[in-house]
Specification:
Strands 6-7-8-3-9-10-12-11 form an 8-stranded mixed beta sheet, sandwiched between helices. Strands 2-1-4-5 form a 4-stranded antiparallel beta sheet, covered by helices on one side. It contains 12 helices and 12 strands. The protein is α/β, with parallel strands linked by helices. Helices cover about 30% and strands about 25% of the residues.
């Protein structure tokens, strides 16, 4: 596989009334062609900022970025805004969390899908409508011809999310960012959307970056998982390796919060005590130390580097002075 997206030493900071806020800290990450990667972490971990920065969607006087983001070996910071916009839709696209706010409430579904086809691919009005119906059929919306003439409020949340996916894949992008695509949906619809993304990845040959707070979502739908905490990557491995031999206590804590079939009805799930560190303050030591069950003195004073698991062929990285012993995590 060839590298489609390459992120090197990326840091993102914002000017705020409370001072400089560090949202992403020295992140290095590669996405290969045809690969599905899960980016997991709590709210405030920096995963959404990372994906939006990689897309080139974050800009402004209060945004400070350093590092390099390359798409197909093209440094996105070295191209014009017009060249960057030309990549959106045709080369990379994004599915946002809430389909109701992603869609224009006063425009029909067909019009919103056709817009990308007419602007990006130069299709005629008639051809764009025909292709829009094909896209709705591809994302498994019943009676797609009738759906084209409906407004977003006339569709259920699951169908609206399918429409958003149809718009995102309309111009056959090589890379799709899915930012919490199932958060507002019930469990049954979540599974359907995730299975749909799997099918589209295979049929269209796309790479997918699945951004979520739920480790359970990435379990059967990704090739690799990247765990973020307080703006940093704290663990990264192939999905099967991570679930079998997680080394970072934060990953274990996220895993314990997932309900299983054996979980008794009404049982309170474990939670991670404490709060994510204040991103406007410079913390010493491990950023997870105040919430970690395995914290020792060194954790509070020295910041751990991201290191590679020794003696393995897999690229398993973790950031911990005292990693969980292999096979000892839940």
């Amino acid at each position: 596989m060839s590298t489609l997206l390459s992120i090197s030493n990326l840091s993102v900071r914002f000017d705020t009334v409370r001072g400089m806020l560090s949202a992403v800290k020295d992140v290095t990450l590669q996405i290969e062609s045809g690969e599905s990667v899960g980016v997991v972490g709590e709210s405030g971990s920096g995963k959404s900022v990372l994906s939006r920065t990689a897309m080139g969607l974050l800009d402004g006087k209060n945004v400070h970025k350093s590092g390099v983001v390359k798409f197909n070996d093209v440094d996105l910071s070295q191209i014009s805004p017009e060249e960057l916009r030309s990549l959106w839709g045709t080369e990379m696209a994004m599915i946002f969390q809430d389909p109701m706010t992603s869609l224009n409430p006063v425009r029909k579904i067909g019009t919103q899908i056709a817009e990308a086809l007419r602007i990006r691919l130069g299709m005629s009005k008639a051809d764009a409508r025909t292709r829009s119906a094909e896209l709705l059929r591809l994302v498994q919306i019943p009676d797609p011809d009738a759906a084209l003439d409906k407004f977003p409020f006339q569709l259920s949340g699951g169908l609206r999310q399918r429409v958003v996916i149809a718009i995102a894949i309309a111009c056959n992008p090589k890379l799709l960012f899915a930012d919490e695509p199932t958060t507002a949906l019930d469990v049954t619809i979540q599974a359907q959307i995730l299975e749909l993304l799997d099918e589209l990845k295979k049929s269209l040959g796309m790479s997918i970056v699945l951004v979520t707070h739920d480790l359970g979502v990435v379990a059967g739908h990704t090739d690799r998982v990247v765990v973020m905490y307080a703006g940093e990557i704290v663990e990264s491995a192939r999905t099967t390796v991570l679930f079998k031999n997680m080394r970072m206590p934060y990953t274990e804590a996220l895993f314990k919060s997932i309900p299983t079939l054996d979980t008794p009805t009404g049982m309170r799930l474990p939670t991670i005590e404490g709060r994510v560190p204040d991103p406007t303050k410079q913390e010493s030591g491990c950023l997870f130390a105040s919430r970690c069950a395995y914290t020792q003195d060194k954790c509070r004073t020295e910041h751990p580097p991201l290191v590679r698991e020794e003696g393995t062929d897999d690229e398993h990285l973790y950031r911990c002075w005292f990693p969980i012993e292999i096979g000892k995590a839940r």
